[in-house]
Amino acid sequence: MLDNKLTLKLLKDKYSVCRLDKNNEIPKWIFDEEIFSITKTEDELSIVCLQDKISNDIICEKDWKILKIEGPLDFSLVGILSKISTLMANNKISIFAISTYDTDYILIKEESVDKAIKVLESNSYSIFYQ
């Protein structure tokens, strides 16, 4: 388990988690975005992106804020997401996590962000704002 606490950055924009059919094409506009995540499985195509770009015909959950764990994080580190997700679960805060090669991103519904930050800060995490 990770013993030293990390620094997280709250990104300023609101994001959506979208679900498309597995056979849908990836929207071309997504590639112009600064931050996005695309995951395709045998069941679906999921896209995380700025919510102001989403058309009304796409199924999505809106109003997510992102806490970025400042990295890069070494692959040998263990328990980063586990510790944060446990803190959030213990405080009844839902998350959606995205991992990249260098770091992790924690999506939290906008109405829960202030509570999540208080929980993290009370557990020695540092938070700063974009």
TrEMBL record:
Pfam families linked to this entry: A9CJY8-like_N, ACT_7
Domain A9CJY8-like N-terminal: from-to ranges: 13-57
Top-level taxonomic group: Bacteria
Gene3D superfamilies per record: VC0802-like
Domain CASTOR ACT: 60-121
Cited SUPFAM superfamilies: ACT-like
InterPro entries, per database record: A9CJY8-like_N (IPR049447), ACT-like_dom_sf (IPR045865), CASTOR_ACT_dom (IPR027795), CASTOR_mTORC1 (IPR051719), UCP008459 (IPR016540)
Protein name: ACT domain-containing protein
Organism: Clostridium sartagoforme
